[in-house]
User: Which sequence fits this backbone?
């Protein structure tokens, strides 16, 4: 078992600092206390080459943090990069390859305009599909929203209410990019990005970073670092085809989310999570992921009803995005709209330490 014993985070938004400085802002306060303990560095980042013209970000950051000599790896798994870095850190510790891993996640996405950011992110789709249909992630989210509403009779307001909730959570978070509450009417009247989804239902382009230290959780090691370690009972990773059209089964099922969620609950022995932090690049994804993940609600169109009944609010029976506000507000992404891929899972871990 591994445990998180320290975490740090930057304020998110359009930052003037360069990418390495953002990495240092989140990690250096931790290293002042634990530098001599770190024996592995994982750097979660997807787009340093595209947005910042930087290669070898892991070795550059190691030097910036005065960790030369500490082995390092860059982790790029698009929007799952942060969570994947935590998965790898957990594996390094369980295998005995490391006893204390510094995991950092950082992106600086505001160096390009919306059109170019959209093009870069869309490159995770197969070239043949992009050439034939010209899809982007916002347009795919819009298709998913139309399908969800048509199949389950979900109201348009239920999707917009996800944004209202997450803006409210973000307004209470001093690290969030967007710290502003919005009304249902404001969400519904914001500019259309991809019908039926609107601007306030997507995450913004953002810059920032987060860092955590994972250590051996067994034998009292974690308690030697802090009196409030967060033990990781299970981490699971799953993938599906990069080609959306080639995925078998029902698109509404998000098979990779389903398999990862069920495996994590099997390994941990937990059948009903207390709360969930979901990837809300677009509001509809929160609903579909709730139904795919397992433990939150049954599939088949139950999530939108839970949102309208307030069950996913902080303090609700099935709280989603909890105190943090989610990718829509912590940062990540663009107006048209992208989550900051390298940071996601690390933001969640920082908030678990905090709350």
Assistant:
């Amino acid at each position: 078992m591994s445990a998180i014993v320290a975490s740090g985070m930057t304020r998110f938004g359009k930052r003037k600092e360069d990418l390495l400085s953002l990495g240092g802002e989140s990690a250096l306060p931790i290293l002042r206390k634990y530098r001599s303990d770190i024996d592995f560095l994982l750097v979660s980042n997807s787009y340093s080459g595209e947005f910042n013209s930087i290669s070898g970000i892991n070795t550059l950051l190691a030097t910036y943090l005065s960790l030369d000599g500490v082995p390092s790896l860059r982790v790029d798994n698009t929007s799952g990069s942060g969570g994947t870095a935590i998965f790898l850190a957990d594996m390094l510790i369980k295998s005995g390859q490391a006893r204390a891993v510094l995991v950092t996640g950082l992106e600086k996405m505001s160096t390009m305009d919306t059109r170019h950011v959209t093009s870069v992110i869309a490159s995770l789709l197969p070239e043949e599909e992009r050439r034939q249909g010209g899809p982007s992630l916002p347009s795919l989210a819009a298709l998913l929203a139309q399908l969800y509403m048509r199949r389950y009779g979900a109201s348009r307001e239920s999707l917009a209410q996800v944004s209202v909730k997450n803006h409210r959570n973000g307004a209470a978070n001093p690290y969030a990019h967007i710290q502003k509450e919005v009304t249902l009417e404001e969400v519904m009247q914001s500019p259309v990005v991809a019908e039926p989804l609107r601007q306030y239902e997507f995450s913004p382009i953002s810059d920032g970073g987060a860092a955590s230290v994972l250590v051996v959780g067994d034998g009292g090691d974690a308690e030697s670092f802090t009196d409030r370690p967060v033990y990781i009972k299970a981490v699971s990773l799953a993938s599906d085809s990069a080609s959306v059209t080639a995925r078998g089964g029902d698109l509404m099922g998000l098979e990779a989310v389903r398999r990862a969620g069920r495996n994590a609950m099997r390994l941990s022995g937990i059948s009903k999570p207390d709360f969930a932090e979901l990837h809300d690049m677009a509001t509809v994804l929160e609903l579909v992921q709730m139904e795919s993940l397992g433990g939150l609600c049954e599939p088949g169109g139950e999530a939108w009803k839970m949102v309208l009944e307030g069950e996913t609010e902080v303090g609700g029976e099935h709280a989603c995005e909890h105190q943090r506000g989610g990718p829509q507000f912590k940062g990540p992404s663009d107006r048209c709209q992208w989550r900051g891929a390298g940071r996601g899972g690390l933001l969640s871990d920082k908030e678990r330490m905090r709350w």
In short: Strands lie at 2-9, 40-44, 72-75, 100-108, 192-194, 197-198, 207-216, 230-232, 275-276, 319-320. The chain has two domains: 2-111+206-232, 114-203+236-354. The CA atoms of residues 169 and 323 lie 6 Å apart.
